[in-house]
Amino acid sequence: MHYRNREVEQVREIAHDCDALVIGGGIVGLSTAYAITRAAPGTRVTVLEKEPGPARHQTGRNSGVIHSGIYYRPGSLKARYAVRGAAEMVKFCAEYGIAHAVTGKLIVATRREELPRLHALVQRGRENGIPVRELGAAQIAEYEPEVRGLAAIHVGTTGVCDYTGVARQLAAASGAEIRYGARVVRVDRRPDRGVAVRTARGDVVRARVLVNCAGLHCDEVARLTGDEPEARIVPFRGEYYELARPELVRGLVYPVPDPAFPFLGVHLTRGIDGGVHIGPNAVPALAREGYGWGVVRPRELAGTLSWPGSWRIARRHWRYGAGELRRSVSKAAFTEAVRRLLPCVEESDLVPAPAGVRAQAVLRDGTLVDDFLIREGARAVHVLNAPSPAATASLPIGREVARRALRALAAG
Predict the structure, then answer these.
(1) 218 near 382, Cβ under 8 Å?
(2) Distance between the two ends of the chain, CA-based, in angstroms?
(3) Is the separation of the CB atoms in 39 and 197 below 8 Å?
């Protein structure tokens, strides 16, 4: 996937256009650019983003939740960065006047078999240093009068914010050169010289170090660079509805998640605009940016289907997947899932809302990578798995990626 031309052959003689070249203008890429310039003022950073503006995919198409970190394995990057990142995100939003609110949330058990898992979440929350209040069935109404369950826990540090606004502020405060409409098509890395990147427009950008924060396309960018990611991004679409009667929900309400999956289940989220989003489910997308069943990209679909891990996931979890597909094609089935938490909801209360796509890294054996995954190559740092709660954790993630990029700069 390398290319050679006169421009690139002369990279030794021609000055680099920047020190660090970040591919991807989502919240992780922009946080990384921000962290580099904060840690090493004077470092020249360029960000290439293929869309006409920032945060057009995972960052701008999620439910806007600032996660507490209660779900994640103690000691994992997700746990450490989410807990730290939640507090930092609230502070960042307050400092720059970005819309946000610390609302707290309920995690509700609606079936007896969920009670042990709910108790395990209490223990995990305490291990992660998160304050948790346990509630009996009658106490749920203190927080959410219309929600029903056998038991629940209240997590006070959860909130919501405008992540697109955060991304814009990170871009502005970073001092980096941001180039929109700059889709990367080729990369030539010379360990003794640097990295040269060509965009679809024909521009060539030369840098000392490449930082890959390409989200849904991060594995492809890693391979363009010459590094084998040893995982593939398998896209999962999350479909949402908006609640026509938002007064039914005061804050955030979640089911007890299945620990076998990285997905949290259909939940209720009152956003900063006062509207209540319901979702997402999780179904295979037919394109990396497949926000509807009608979006099919044969090359990308073939790449997903040719990866052995995709078939192993399907065989291992077909029952779970069948339920998600049923809720995707049947509004009645989706409503049924919502009624477990909110019995008074009617099918007519659900208004279709824009979908998102989760960039989930999957190993060859079918294992869903359950933590943030950052890898390094010669003159390159690759963020290879950064789905939820990456927006919450974006400031600590950015600092870690920046630390590795600056180390690579110092080495060469």
Answers:
(1) yes
(2) 24
(3) no
Tokens of 261: 């999956």
The overall pTM is greater than 0.70 = yes
Compute the CA torsion angle 347, 350, 352, 355 (nearest 10 deg).
Answer: -110
> Which of 263, 264, 271, 265 has the alpha carbon at shortest distance from 243?
271
And the tokens for 126?
Answer: 């305490």
Strand partners, 268: 253, 278
Query: What is the spatial distance between Cα 38 and Cα 30, in angstroms, rounded to a whole number?
Result: 12
- Site of tokens 């720059």: 96
Is-cis flag, bond preceding 389, omega within 30? Answer: yes
Per-residue pLDDT of the chain (412 residues; tens, 9 = 90+): 444 444 444 444 458 999 999 999 999 999 999 999 999 999 999 999 999 999 999 999 999 999 999 999 999 999 999 999 999 999 999 999 999 999 999 999 999 999 999 999 999 999 999 999 999 999 999 999 999 999 999 999 999 999 999 999 999 999 999 999 999 999 999 998 999 999 999 999 999 999 999 999 999 999 999 999 999 999 999 999 999 999 999 999 999 998 766 677 889 999 999 999 999 989 999 999 999 999 999 999 999 999 999 999 888 887 778 888 999 999 999 999 999 999 999 999 999 999 999 999 999 999 999 999 999 999 999 999 999 999 999 999 999 999 999 999 999 7
3-state class (DSSP) for residue 162 = coil
**Can you give the length of the chain in residues?**
412
- Is the omega angle on the peptide bond into residue 131 within 30 degrees of 0, that is, cis? no
Tokens coding 310: 């995709």
Residue type, 293: W
